[in-house]
Amino acid sequence: MLAAKRSDLRSAVGLVILTGLTGCPAPNHPRGGNARAFTLEVGRPGASLRGVAGDRDRTFAAFTTTPDTTTDAASSRAARTTIEARRLAAIAWQVELDGTAGPLARARDLLAITLGGAPGLRGEPGAVVVALDASTGAARWRTAIDSTEWSVITSIAPAPDGFVVGGTFSGTLRAQAKVVSSAGGSDGFVARLSTAGDVIWLVRVGGAGADSVQGVAASPDRVAIAGTVTGGADLLGQPLPAFDERSPFADGFVAELDAAGARRWSATFGGKEDDSVAGVAIDASGRVAVAANARGAVHVGNSELMAQGPADGMVIWWQPGGDRGPTILLGGLDFDGLRGIAAVGDRVVVGGFFSGTMRLGDRAITAGGGDDAFLAALDDSGNTVAGWQVGGEGREDIAALAAIPDGFIAGVTHTATAWVEGVPLPAPKHPMSGAALVIRGVP
Predict the structure, then answer these.
(1) 412: closest CA among 359, 357, 352?
(2) Partners of 167 in the beta sheet?
């Protein structure tokens, strides 16, 4: 059982909370941008929050219900995903699909959801992108990205002419007429899809070890990808050198492709221990920012950074031409890290987890008995311009993070009574089903 956390929240709280935050943040917090600020509890028994997206009028969220396989009757049922569109607290439409939900993305009039383990796919699991009409939820198209062994879509981003997806696979991966094969145990992939669901191009990343694409982002003429590689990996014939080519532990990589999928530049970073990547973003000035997790000493270019505790979150910027910019660490003396990143204008927003105490801008925040979550808006120099703590009596985490006009939407999960900078969230009926949407502007 998770250790209990100290909390001043003693009053009963209704199932649905819709609260503006005027006056709620700590006095040293800058006020957010123009996005309407609210927190909405959306948890339901038996379901877990998997993906979020939004626009100026609506929020979108995907929940997966996994059957209880402890009984024979339940074991034959597949996971089911529910996608909901809301205008504030009111549900505008709701759609159910077979499979386990992954990340969402909103582009033009479409909402794209990624699913794993849906019926009719090759591999165990297989992956598919399903596009819905953002206004009504009506199905528009379905594009499988499946493999002879297995495939997982880890990330999706809107592009001017559709979507970009990234993930990992083993075996021979097929996306319509485009085919690539893994060079080792697992490789990464990135694919560009049109607004009609056609696969424009498909690119493999990796080598003989375990490699993966963990984040994608797109602008009108560029695609940024980030993930992890081990020794001997390459991107379109260009080596992605690991810190130690003989080590089985992963290093991070980032690369930029042009609109046709050709490589522009790439870089790697890492150290002797296992590092990971939580996502990538392109800001309004064309800088590429990577959210990663560092253990021990991490080498970024000619610089070496040392995590304060067992692990820290890390954000690294690159200029449009590939020159490296600032690098910062986020965390304290315990095991801390990042879950996602999104670009809002010239800022980036990161979401992560921490225990113990860490710095969040000009204040120190302290977690309770388990992990707490946090959200931070950073400028291009790595300064924290706004921060939000998500705490409570149990464990809190950032399940998903996406940009909206002038701000961001974060999917927060919680196992007990929690709060977002003073806004309360009720304890869920089941510890694994607490979920809330947090929408904030970015200064």
Answers:
(1) 352
(2) 153, 189
pTM of the model: 0.90
The pLDDT assigned to 82 comes to 97
Tally Cβ neighbours within 10 Å of residue 317: 21
Tokens of 111: 């909402």
Q: Could you tell me the sign of the dihedral formed by the alpha carbons of 394, 399, 405, 407, in that order?
A: positive
Amino acid at 393: E
- Examine residue 125 and say whether the peptide bond preceding it is cis (omega within 30 degrees of 0): yes
Question: Would you state the structure tokens that stand for residue 371, as one six-digit string?
Answer: 């992990």
Structure tokens at 247: 């080590």
Joined together, the tokens standing for residue 91 give: 């549900």
- C-alpha 362/C-alpha 385 separation (Å) is 9
Helix, strand, coil percentages for the chain (3-state, nearest 5): 0, 60, 40
The span from the CA of 264 to the CA of 277, in Å, is 20
Decide: 325 and 363 in contact? Cβ < 8 Å. Answer: no
C-alpha distance across the termini of the chain, in Å: 39
Cis ω for the linkage preceding 220 (within 30 of 0): no
* Residue 264, token pair as written in the block: 């522009």
Tens digits of residue pLDDT in 49-96: 999 999 989 999 999 998 765 444 444 468 999 999 999 899 999 999
